[in-house]
Amino acid sequence: MSATYKFNCKVVEVLTVGETITAHAITFSADIIKERPSWSNNYLLDMQTSIQGGYQKYLGVDKTKALRMATLNVLNIQSLSLDFFSKFKLQLDIDYDNSTARKKEILKTLGFSAYYADAASGNQESLVSLLNQFKENMTADLETEITTKGMNPAIITGIKTQVPGMSAANTVQEAAKGSKKLLTDAAVNELNDLYKKIIAICKVGRKVFKDDKAKKDLFSFAKTLKALRGANKGGGDNPPPQPPAQ
User: Fold this and answer.
1) Is 238 within the bounds of a domain?
2) Stated pTM of the model
3) How far apart are CA 73 and CA 64, in angstroms?
4) Domain containing 143: what range?
């Protein structure tokens, strides 16, 4: 009987989520190792190296560094962009409180009406569309009008600066998600073992930071996977076995 995967997501997603969570564990290694002393002596660094090597080993992806950086950039730019958009919308609501029709027209022109709701819920494609339409339609005249009303110019600049990075990172990430390679039973078993170790880091991290929600969430496989996919779906911290999926 062929070996089956013990995780409910793609191989590239296990590697990317695992690398992200392991990076958090390394950042907070003093607290993590205090809870789990057996992970001293470079255990977390060795884990990181194994995951990074997995892109080439299991996926055949040559530009592994570009892939990893693109994926991490997507997560970071997504968070930054949504923060800027939230601030922009809040200030626009304040400044155009007595001009509802004009406010609606501006939001439609800049892409909010079509893309903001989905982008705010984590959809990366909608965020890319929102960023591009915002930059394209934010003319000098419109920017002057909005900032004259009271908008902080730094918010508009902040949104514009996210456009090229998000578009490029999203393109590389999507290409990597489609990577496929026929794996042997031995490779599947290795990946299952790697996934098990990632989940162990999740469990320890969530225990260590049980009273700090922000840090605790950094060690959620499900939430990290959801952010990576940019959609309202994903595997849990201990998802049931599924058929092979790459």
Assistant:
1) no
2) 0.54
3) 14
4) 81-168
